[in-house]
Design a protein that fits this description.
7-stranded mixed beta sheet; mainly beta; 119 residues; 11 strands
Length: 119
């Protein structure tokens, strides 16, 4: 089992920045990839950014490329999402998720953190 706890959400204005954190605990040695997802009201959940846990090769959805940066501190078992130049359309609940060896997909999820960008 892996437990994930997000933090760092909040209310900001257009153009400002936020950094989300996701602390993993439990069987962290089984993690091989982690991602940030988001879900806005009335919309489907989408993958925002993902990273391989051992050999970081970040991937981003087109709408955040150049503005968001995903990173991880393997020693601290923590995933980050640096979000710059935020836009109102980035408003959503952000979730971190972990994929583990022998798992099906992203089997473990955090509770979510709200990000609201005002215009």
């Amino acid at each position: 089992q892996v437990q994930l706890v997000e933090s760092g959400g909040g209310l900001v204005q257009t153009g400002e920045s936020l950094r989300l954190s996701c602390k993993a605990s439990g069987r962290t040695s089984t993690i091989y990839a982690m991602s940030w997802f988001r879900q806005a009201p009335g919309k489907e959940r989408e993958s925002v950014a993902s990273i391989n846990w051992s050999f970081p090769n970040p991937n981003y959805v087109d709408s955040v490329k150049g503005r968001f940066t995903i990173s991880r501190d393997k020693a601290e078992n923590t995933l980050y999402l640096q979000m710059n130049s935020l836009k109102p359309e980035d408003t959503a609940v952000y979730y971190c998720a972990a994929a583990v060896v022998l798992g099906k997909s992203y089997d473990y999820w955090g509770q979510g953190t709200q990000v609201t960008v005002s215009s």
